[in-house]
Amino acid sequence: MLFGEGPRGIYKYYLKHYCFEGIKVADLPIAAVVRIAKQSGAERVGSDGAAALVAKAEDYIAGLVKEANKFALHAGRKTIKEEDIALAAKS
Fold first, then answer.
1. 3-state secondary structure the chain
2. Which of 5, 18, 80, 82 would give a disulfide with 26, using CB separation of 3.0 to 4.6 Å?
């Protein structure tokens, strides 16, 4: 069971977005994301909230990397550097 099953459970969402042939493929560990949320002021984070945070964080990171990669390629590099991430975060 993954975060509980039910009509409004995150289980169906998680299977739809993060499983490939029954194997979970989300890359960010939920515990790390929950720890960041708590360090940022959240007193408690529910399992559905944690899964949503992981999904949004992964989407944000993927978008940031795509944009940073454009800056690296424009500079004639294949390696993404800190400056590319900084520029991508500004745009």
1. CCCCCCCCCHHHHHHHHHEECCEECCCCCHHHHHHHHHHCCCCCCCHHHHHHHHHHHHHHHHHHHHHHHHHHHHCCCCCCCHHHHHHHHHC
2. 18
